[in-house]
Amino acid sequence: MLKQRIITALVLVIVLMAALFSEQLIYWRLLINLAILVGFWEWVKLSQLKGVVNQCIAYILFIAAVVALQFGCLPLSYIVPISCLIWMVLFVFTLTDELNFLHQEWIKIFIGIVVLSVAGVLIIDLKNLNNGPLWVLCFLVSVWAADIGAYFIGRRFGKTKLAPKVSPGKTVEGLFGGVVFALIIFIPISLIWFEEHQTGLLLTIIVTVLVSVVGDLFESKQKRFAGIKDSSQVLPGHGGVLDRIDSLLSGAPFFVMGLIVLGYWR
To answer: Which of 45, 47, 114, 130 has a CA between 20 and 30 Å from the CA of residue 36?
Structure first.
């Protein structure tokens, strides 16, 4: 199992880096769109939407949202804060027993359409910024470093459960350990590559990392409600695409919001 996880992870990293550092944006766009399309397929299953007609309508709406965002039909200056607001609502839904009406099938489908299409276009457009690949790596590495740090610190020192009803394995100690580990990784990058807004960038990373946990917990709650362990088995040893990108979905709007406030995103 471990060997399978390592091989899959290596293949994913190679494909990701090849697309990210290619001079042709089309490869990066294709890779991200493939990821969110598979992610939406898994989301439809998690939502337990029944009926071929209903599922076809869901896919049509999703593709329409993706096209509208990626062709600039909807201004990101409005979409980003709205997406952040939606994740704040989902935070309340995830950690409490409030807002249980969000379990309704079509509401879940709407949420999936928004969070996947928005995260997709934001991660694609990150590469278009000055030093685009560096911004993408800052985002991805910070979120993944936090996840790794939270896992190991949580296993070693974790005592206080973060959300026992949703994900019993996550702890408050692990959360703070993840934030610290992400900062250990990001601070040298900030000092070397960015001469301005270093404090603002550090705050952006902290907020992004904290919010990324919401995406992980939100998907865990959906899987628990649907009675499944993994969103799918498309990634050998890793489960589904959603299992790998759930933290990125919630983190992306807040990371970009930080760049907008600091003047890096124009």
So the answer is: 130
